[in-house]
Amino acid sequence: MKVNAQNSKQEKPIRVAIVEDREEIRFGLSRLIGGAEGFECTGSYRSMEEGLEELPKNLPDVVLNDIGLPKMSGIEGIKILKQKYPNLSILILSVYDDDDRIIDGICAGASGYLLKSTPMPKILECLREVQSGGAPMSPEIAMRVMQLFRESPPPKQVDYDLTPHETRILKMLVEGHNYKTAAAELNLSVNTISFHIKHIYEKLQVHSKSEAVAKALKNRLV
What we know:
Largest sheet: 5 strands, parallel
CATH superfamily of the largest domain: Response regulator
Order of helices and strands: EHEHEHEHEHHHHHH
Helix content: 40-55%
Number of domains: 2
Shape: globular
CATH topology of the largest domain: Rossmann fold
CATH architecture of the largest domain: 3-Layer(aba) Sandwich
């Protein structure tokens, strides 16, 4: 029986694959996603090596990816996936909340970062958010990211000629906003936000929200 999920009506289901080494978590996530209205679980894999081999056979929309995996790390696997499939969205689900893994995961190309303590319904909500262009983070992760910015101000020599308004919008992307929530926060239309983000991408020489967030984090732009 399908589980009703708020705002889950879609013409096509969101196709999700799972990379997770712990069997009980992998099984639970598979049941959650496979049983939720508006979602389809395309596969679940116990290692990054298995995922890299099997994912291309049935490429999903989103990969829900652990990073503390045996042998190849999830972060290394995310880099490989993003090189091969730049438009593939990857949402990290991890027990780790240390600075290095957060920054490395986002810079590798992840679209968001959740802790494994995240409630199951919230995971579904975040998968929808990623699919719609958002960059969801657990509150603890977002707090760590903001603390890193406060502790490490942007280097003066890095200048991409962003206007103050563009910098504010980029900061909102880093904080996990999507086009709609950024537009609501700034009292602007979604089209106006899209226009500004297009110029931000051009200035940063990136092609996606995850790349823009990664570059902002790496170069301390916000």
